[in-house]
Every structure is written in structure tokens, then in C-alpha cells.
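Researcher: Re-running this chain for the archive, since the previous output was lost when a drive failed. Same request as before.
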Amino acid sequence: MKNRVLLVSFASVVLFVLFVFFLMNPSYQKSLEAKYYYETGSYKMAYSLANEAFSIDVYNRMASTIMAQSKTALKYVAYLNDAKKYMQEIETMAAEGAITDAQRAKIKMMCSIMIDAYPKLAPSVITKKSLVEDAQHYYDKFEKLFEKVDR
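Model: Regenerated C-alpha cells:
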């Protein structure tokens, strides 16, 4: 019983020391801040902070992981921004009435760009599901639209 209490006490002290080290180390402080920004969707800020943390301590795996997560998320955000912009342009053309051959060629080109860009995103287990699902949704839309325009 006495050994068990001593072991639990020792483990508690070690965990406390590690926790204090984790909070006092500037690299890990920046990593925690980067994780917060990643979770709130501020991927640029998360990437920047994780990069700073990693440059302070190259063995900081948390910073490395957040940097990779943020980089992938930024690719998805860029894809989604382009997809929204192109869809809005296409909807504006469609609202005008009959689509001309020049407009059809432009729509086909926009669809091709978005279809070709999608496989380069390469989702991973750590990528937020909402980003992956939104990108998949737009990819499917552009594929269907391309088939209609290509006829």
C-alpha cells in the first residue's frame, strides 16, 4: 500500500513537472495557440504560429502536425473559394438566358480547372470533415455541369 501511494505521488509530480514545462516552453505555448486558431478555422494564423513554434523547437511534433493540418486546410479553403467564385459566375451567365458558345466554352474551362484541381487536395485523416465534404460537393457539381456543357 505504501509503495502504491509513493508510486502515485511520484507519477503525479512527474506529470505536474511535464505540464509546467509544456506551459512555460515558448514553442509549446505557440503550438497551443496555433491549435486554437486551427480549431476556430483561422488556418493562416494557425500555420503562422505553428511555423514559429517549429522554428523555435524542431522537435515539437505538435507544431509540425498543426503546420501540416493548416497547410492542407488552406488548400481546401482556396479550392472552395475558387469553386464558389466560379459557380457564382456560371449562375450569373445562366440567369441572363440563352448561353452563347463563348460562354459555354468559358463554363467548360472553369469546370475543367476545378475538376483537375480536386485530386491535388489529397485529404488526410486530420483534415476537417466539413472541408472535405464541401470540396466533394463542389467537385460533383462541376463534373455534372461539365457533362452537360460538353454535349
